[in-house]
Amino acid sequence: MTDPLASITRSPQPAGPPVGLDQRHPLEVSELRQLWSMLDGGAIMVVEVRHRLWRSWGLCPRHGWGFLAMEVELRGGHPLTSTVLVEDLVGRAVRAVRRAFGRPLSGPRRLLGTRASCLTCDFVDLVRRGGEGNPLARPTREWLDRMRPLPALAATSALLAATEREWRPRACPGCLAGGGPLCRPHLLAGSVSLDDRRRTLAALEDLSGRLTRYGRSMTWRGPAARPEDRAALVEGLAWTGGWRAPLGLLAGREAAAGPERHV
Ligand SMILES: [Zn+2]
Ligand SMILES: [Zn+2]
After folding, report:
1. In angstroms, rounded to a whole number, what is the distance separating the alpha carbons of residues 168 and 164?
2. Which has fewest Cβ within 10 Å: 124, 174, 188, 198?
């Protein structure tokens, strides 16, 4: 029987979908180790890490979706940490777009652009440049066993498919011809009319409210999550980095549409 961990460790013949959004480039052990340190080690709640994630608007699409997949697959399908992070970023986006009103049309570009690189990308780069001495770069067999459910991405695919009816109509017009807000990469990519800003602000305010409710639904005595609240996590993460990554994850292959660079 083929070892399902093969796709984590870059086997030339991976078993099943890779732990990543692009079958040609599955996530490496160093990427998974860094994401796990943020999820299980609680690093994502450290003030300095949070400030860095504010400046970079979260992780890049590859690692942002990798982080969500890791939480969904390994934490019983309750992505509270991802929801808290995305709610925080979308809340900041609402305030940034509000501030952009009344300023020259270059305002969104300055307020919504990244001012730091992706934390996970930086760690992988460090390991590649000879930082194997970092204990995070050396997986144990026990740790690899904990990653065992990841390659199938069963819960993540199920989450995307179950919420698609909600998120697809609210997707970015530029990425998916949806009726939702322009995603952050598309807001940065071109000139944004006043009407675009108004629509974006209203959609982001609605998204922020649904993310808050979804987060609260995972806490003691919180409200029940509605379908549109569960979809808000997909929409929020896609807003920060574009819709190419979730489409690729849903299809089990690299999708053809939408920007993917970390901008
Ligand atoms: Zn990255
Ligand atoms: Zn877009």
Report:
1. 6
2. 198
